[in-house]
Amino acid sequence: MSDRPLVIVAALCLLIGVGAGAFGAHGLKRMLSVDMMQIWQTAVLYQLVHGLGMLAIAALMARFGSPLLEWAGALMLLGIVLFSGSLYVLALSGTKWLGAVTPLGGAAFIAAWALVALAAWRHS
């Protein structure tokens, strides 16, 4: 994914993250238990942080010109879908087996940040 599509996807992830945060704070506060609300907030936090991460990656693409950054952006998006997505569904439905998917999203986040570091290290 090149820089322009990555910026678009990042902005949409951030837009959804802000909406999910507001929905959680105003629409779900009385419906979810404290534990489920905390899970919801964790999903929002990671979505917002990694949406900003995708924007940073898009900005770095022009500077470093590394294909590793394209992979990093794609992995961050995958991480948001798997990590935050599974936590949103868990908070809303109580479906516990989705907890097995969440670490895969976390691993995608870690791999993405490792690729960012590697791209910077390799840049001369």
From TrEMBL:
Gene Ontology CC entries for this record: plasma membrane
InterPro entries, per the entry: DUF423
Keyword hit for Transmembrane: yes
Membrane topology reported for the UniProt record: Multi-pass membrane protein
Predominant location: membrane
Coiled coil start-end: none
Ranges annotated as spanning the membrane: 40-61, 68-91, 97-121
Keyword Membrane: yes
Highest taxon listed in the record's lineage: Bacteria
Localization terms from the record: Membrane
The protein, known as: Uncharacterized membrane protein YgdD (TMEM256/DUF423 family)
Organism annotation: Pusillimonas noertemannii
